[in-house]
Design goal:
The complex is a heterodimer. In chain A, about 50% of the residues lie in helices and about 15% in strands. Chain A has 14 helices and nine strands. Chain A has helices at about 10-15, 25-35, 50-60, 75-80, 85-95, 100-110, 120-125, 140-155, 185-190, 200-210, 215-230, 240-250, 260-265, 275-285; strands at about 40-45, 65-70, 80-85, 115, 130-135, 155-160, 160-165, 170-175, 190-195. A five-stranded parallel β-sheet of chain A has the order 2-5-8-1-9, with helices on both faces. In chain A, helix 1 (about 10-15) packs across helix 3 (about 50-60). Chain B is an alpha/beta fold. Chain B has helices at about 5-15, 25-35, 40-50, 60-70, 85-95, 105-120, 125-140, 155-160, 165-175, 180-215, 215-225, 240-265, 275-280, 315-325, 355-365, 375-385, 415-420, 445-450, 460-470, and strands spanning about 140-145, 150, 300-305, 330-340, 340-345, 395-400, 425-430, 455. Chain B has a six-stranded mixed β-sheet. Chain B has a two-stranded antiparallel ribbon with strand order 1-2.
Chain lengths: ~290, ~475
């Protein structure tokens, strides 16, 4: 298997070209996950760019993205594979008594009647692939057991067809919002990356890259203010996505300075609880 | 020490600090190290962090230990630009035996403070780190025994006193702008964080030097703080409490999902005949899959009675915040607080209320002290039974929070027995370690016979308890 990247700096440069500004830790961990052939578990609060990271890795590596969105009640049939039951029934009806049962039996459990789901598709692909398993914490605990098998050996056993082994190991990214603790067994098999709110300098770069046309001084002021908001005791600290929304809002309204008036008019873009809103206005000394 | 020995020692220290590093993860770490550039210290840190730290709660302990095992420099580590200053530093240390340096008297110190101010204003992290090393070399040392030195961060921070630079820094940063208002708040916050980071750098450098003097293991054990969910409520510092309050909502969300998931899994509801027959049409009339009505969730009503006297207030506040953040999981939550008399405090926790406000209003407005302010469990229980008897009924879970220390006062056991008999379940959470129960004025076992009492010293124990009642 040929690795996708050659060095942490290579990761960084190519992610930047794909529009994702990684810091040193992100670049090194992505590089290691690729070089060691291990899945990468990305955890962190909502809106810090976990899913974006997977997409950017796909673009940077020139790979296709296969996405498995987890939700409560996700099962094997939705994650791995399923037999196309209706088509099989049709086949049996069409065959009638003309064919021998054995022939029909072999026939209806062949490739033609198999419905590929994301995990199987990612394993069978021969081109470079990034498999994104999004919001792993939303899925039930049983799904983790399923993932363990797939992620440690990169193979799937289908009783009627035999074992399918990965032709080319996909680069796997699992994301989690930590609404529940993932099992130790799963964590042990993954490299772990905790994404947090970025340092002000990096967030400023992100804003400048994502919101073309914004003045540098305004961007600096904006990220400092967001940083201050995050230090307050509030229910939901603003995410990077919300910082970017705020920058766009300011730009759209033609506000070129972030003064008290502008803040009290647009704070709703970043703070979405009434109590958070009031606390921020109080702590920042802004009369609403 | 070879790299492998250092790795083994580091992993052992991580385990000692409570990180569950499995052998496989240790091997992964070695594989990862082989792939990164060892000269790049942050790359090495990322390689270790990615392979052995699998929970953000363990990250602070990891960082502390990493600083010790893989220090950025060894010994004096004089950088090119600092050569002159370091010699000067040693001279100035020798010259002022026993005299505490104070800003304004020592020109070398003033020069250092000027540089610190400049670096803080610019937010230059590398510069601050170098300055921290210079400052520790200059002001952090005291001869302990012949040929040995001991190191202190306190004397460094007192000499530099970075907080006193705040006024001057604000003046510089806000040059030309009017004082007060939002700009100042934001600048103040930014500077406060940079100063805190600088203080951490000083502490880290002092630890590194102590480790060089007296060995890694001892200092490692002394300098790692327990992860947040293991912090003892009764010993929590102010920073711990702020961090705990901030953790309430994520924790409540996590607990809520777990409780809801368990309820769903628990028992399936009655067969939904219509949906089952409808689904069977697509399988030729054979009901392959049965459908069920969603089960009716059992949601207990929760009544919390908590001791808010100063000795256990931190515990009571945190538990209250958590129960109210979890209110969707209960049919109804009512809370009562007491010191020597009891008052209903549910009103302070209306949905969407600000955490800090709730705590301040609780302290200021709740009518919980009538006589002298000494905790009196007996009087409080009698008052509760008299005034709020309607709050508890056969569907209620009663939760009592307190250390059962009644200052040798009355205990009102018959009233409590009557209350406990009326409710569905009753629990008592005691924030004291079990070994301290029944010492002094503690009536833990007397109350424990009426209401089952559990030790609840930290967040881990509290979450475990909440899962059993949800």
């Amino acid at each position: 298997m040929t690795p996708l990247f050659t060095a942490p700096d290579d990761v960084r440069a190519r992610l930047a070209a794909a529009g994702y500004l990684a810091d040193g830790a992100i670049a090194t961990t992505v590089f290691l996950a690729d070089a060691l052939g291990k899945p990468l578990l990305v955890e962190g609060p909502a809106g810090v760019g976990k899913t974006e990271l997977a997409k950017a890795v796909a673009v940077a590596a020139g790979a296709d993205l296969v996405r498995l969105q987890c939700y409560e009640g996700l099962d094997e049939a939705r994650a791995l594979y399923e037999w196309n039951y209706k088509k099989q029934l049709l086949r049996i009806h069409a065959a009638r008594a003309a064919d021998a049962w054995d022939a029909t039996h072999d026939d209806i459990f062949s490739e033609e009647f198999l419905l590929e789901r994301p995990l199987l598709r990612a394993i069978r692909r021969t081109e470079p692939t990034v498999l994104l398993i999004d919001e792993t914490d939303k899925a039930d605990v049983e799904v983790e057991g399923l993932l363990l098998e797939v992620l440690s050996d990169f193979q799937v056993t289908i009783p009627e067809l035999g074992t399918v082994t990965a032709a080319r190991r996909p680069f796997v990214v699992l994301t989690s919002n930590a609404t529940r603790e993932l099992s130790e067994a799963l964590k042990r098999r993954c490299l772990y990356l905790h994404l947090n709110y970025p340092a002000p300098e990096r967030e400023r770069e992100i804003v400048l890259a994502q919101v073309p046309g914004i003045e540098e001084t305004l961007a600096t002021k904006l990220v400092q203010l967001v940083d201050t908001l995050r230090a307050l005791e509030i229910k939901k600290p603003p995410s990077i996505a919300e910082t970017i929304d705020w920058a766009r809002t300011l730009l759209a309204l033609g506000l070129d300075d972030l003064d008290e008036r502008a803040v009290s008019a647009t704070l709703g873009v970043v703070l979405k609880h009434v109590s958070d809103h009031e606390r921020a206005l109080k702590e920042l000394d802004v009369a609403s | 020490m070879s790299l492998l020995d250092r790795h083994a020692g580091f992993v052992a220290a991580l385990r000692g600090a409570g990180l569950p590093v499995s052998p496989v993860e240790g091997i992964d770490a070695v594989r990862a190290i082989a792939l990164v550039d060892l000269a790049d210290r942050e790359g090495l840190r990322a390689a270790y962090a990615g392979t052995v730290v699998k929970s953000p709660a363990h990250r602070p302990a990891f960082d502390t230990l990493f600083e010790l095992w893989f220090p950025p420099v060894m010994g004096e580590a004089v950088e090119a630009g600092d050569a002159f200053e370091a010699t000067e530093a040693r001279e100035s240390v020798e010259g002022m035996e026993g005299v505490a340096p104070r800003p304004g008297r020592d020109p070398a110190l003033d020069a250092l403070r000027d540089r610190l101010a400049g670096l803080l204003a610019a937010g230059d992290e590398a510069g601050l780190r170098a300055l921290a090393r210079t400052a520790v070399a200059r002001y952090g040392t005291a001869p302990a025994a012949p040929g040995r030195q001991s190191w202190f961060s306190y004397s460094v921070l007192r000499a530099l006193s970075p907080e006193t630079l705040m006024a001057r820094l604000l003046r510089e940063v806000l040059a030309g702008l009017e004082r007060g208002g939002m700009a100042e708040r934001v600048a103040r916050q930014t500077l406060t964080m940079r100063i805190a980071a600088f203080e951490d750098m000083v502490v880290a450098d002092v630890r590194r030097r102590i480790a060089e003097e007296s060995g890694l293991d001892r200092i490692a054990r002394a300098s790692v703080r327990p992860p947040l969910d293991q912090v003892d409520f009764l010993r929590a510092t102010r920073d711990d409490l702020a961090a705990l309050r901030r953790a309430v909502h994520p924790l409540a969300r996590r607990l809520g999902t777990r409780l809801a998931a368990r309820r769903r899994r628990g028992h399936r509801g009655r067969l939904d005949f219509r949906r089952t027959v409808r689904a069977s049409l697509s399988t030729g009339g054979v009901p392959l899959v049965t459908h069920h009505r969603p089960p009716r969730p059992h949601r207990p009503e929760l009544v919390v009675i908590c001791d808010v006297s100063s000795s256990v207030a931190a515990f009571a506040h945190f538990t209250l915040l958590l129960t109210f953040a979890l209110r969707e999981q209960f049919a109804k939550v009512r809370a009562f607080a007491f010191v020597d008399t009891v008052d209903e405090i549910t009103r302070f926790f209306a949905p969407g209320v600000d955490v800090v406000d709730a705590m301040t209003r609780l302290a200021a407005e709740a009518d919980v002290v009538r006589l002298g302010g000494r905790t009196n469990y007996g009087r409080a229980i009698e008052a509760f039974a008299e005034r709020y008897a309607g709050a508890v009924g056969p569907d209620t879970s009663l939760l009592i929070l307190g250390d059962a220390r009644s200052n040798y006062g009355p205990l009102a056991t018959p009233t409590l027995t009557a209350l406990a008999d009326r409710v569905r379940h009753a629990y008592w959470l005691n924030p004291e370690p079990r070994a301290d129960w029944d010492t002094g004025d503690s009536a833990a076992s007397t109350y424990g016979e009426i209401v089952p009492m559990r030790e609840c010293r930290n967040v881990a124990q509290l979450t475990e308890f909440i899962q059993t009642i949800g």
